Amino acid sequence: MKSIILAAGKGTRMKSDLPKVLHEIMAKPLLGYVLDNVKNIADESFVIVGHQAEAVEKFVNQNYSNVKTVLQSPQLGTGHAVSMVCPHLVDFDGEVVILCGDSPLITEKTLRDFVQYHKSINSDITVMSTIVENPTNYGRIIRDIDNSLECIVEEKDASVEQKNIKEVNAGIYCLNWNKIKDAFSQLTTNNAQGEYYLTDIIEWGKLNKLSVNAFILANKEEVYGINSRANLAEATKMMNERKLNQLMVDGVTIVDPGSTWISEDTVIGSDTIIYPSTYIEGKNKIGKNCKIGPFAHLRGDVEIADNVKIGNFVEVKKSKINSNTNAGHLSYIGDSEIGSHVNIGAGTITANYNPLTKVKSKTILEDNVKIGSNAVLVAPVVIEEGANVGAGGVITKNVKSWALAITRAPLRVLENWVKKN
Ligand code: UD1
Ligand code: MG
To answer: Is the pLDDT reported for residue 137 higher than 90?
Structure first.
């Protein structure tokens, strides 16, 4: 099985310098969601790039090894986009799934059900459809009197009567490639937008006596497409709600789902409590019985073991924190490895970035280390097992096991100074 992801369009309505598919939901680009959901279904995927191709290519090449990018220039429509892949699949005999790069809510399970349906009825072309209250802008599914699929009519080509149809094209297809590949050299631009429409393969299939079918998806949320900033906010909310509900089913307490944001790629163990106004983005793993927040910010690549407490106004990035460790208040923990039974006092900062060299360095706190309040740990730095750092310390050198590091100026108390002055 191969997959093709359409991502060459401009995304005009985003009013952005960034290509639409690289806009992010909780620190992951829209295209990343689609690619993650097909990666266990297709052994190879093709992303059609066009508008700002280099940026999209860079994201794909850096993050996905079994995904190729294919340039479409100029962009003459969705059918034209798919035809760009034909030279790569000349000898391919199997199924091809087509998706849009701007619809991140589709799940792997739905894609599996969709492909399963296509195979079980020996379909040649299967299109995913769904029923929506407001079908504006979608292609409408036109059915025969016997209810079989006839064609798809785009909004701009639809008659008044057709515009009332609420079954719409979700933009996801499964094709028996050998039987359908010839269609792509035969599409025309005979329509209101003067484009090669991918949707015309339905009619082509009918004409060529292929088995053409629709798979009606009950949960229309999954095919929500993003065309504007408002759509992006709505999709973020839907994605978050879905995640929080799943976490609660799995035994995580979310005190206030209304103010909590947790990315799809965050795994959380049971009996962990997430307090209000917590924002967790990117890829993270949190253990059992932890307390996170209120007002905590996990920025990705964070691994937290069991019984850890991350409290108010604590920001954590790219760090490993072992079990029974606390960082209760007002801290920044970045590029760090922290052992178990460590206590990080209020206001502790890992100074991980050198703005002169632009190098980020690591802070390592071994087991049982105690850091006093308001300490600055200037990385690279290692605080060995059991060592203590006094409050207010600025630690620029490694500290040996069980030592105390203290950088405080001696305290002076001048008796009656206030009265005298
Ligand atoms: C398309 C479908 C419509 C369906 C809707 C679902 C067609 C003709 N219409 O309409 O039936 O209801 O999706 O969301 O297919 N793209 C390219 N190259 C191009 C043109 C588009 O790669 O030359 C990409 C876009 O980046 C986008 C996707 O294809 O990811 C869909 O294009 P878009 O213009 O958004 O199509 P719709 O008008 O939404
Ligand atoms: Mg369009």
So the answer is: no
Q: Write the residue with the smallest CA distance to atom 11 of ligand 1.
A: 139
Q: Is the peptide bond before 104 cis (omega within 30 degrees of 0)?
A: no
Respond yes or no: is residue 329 known to be catalytic. yes
For residues 16 and 375, give the distance between their C-alpha atoms in angstroms, rounded to a whole number: 41
> How far, in Å, CA of 389 to CA of 300, rounded?
27
126 phi and psi angles, rounded to 5 deg: -120, 130
Angle made by CA atoms 69, 72, 78, in degrees to the nearest 5: 105
Judged by its nearest atom, the ligand closest to the C-alpha of residue 34 is: 1
H helices within 138-228, ranges in order? 160-163, 177-180, 201-207
Compute and round to an integer the Cα radius of gyration of the chain.
Answer: 28
Confidence (pTM): 0.93
pLDDT reported for residue 10: 84
Cα 272 to the center of its chain, rounded Å: 23
Pocket test for ligand 1, best of 78, 105, 200, 222 (most atoms within 8 A of CB): 78
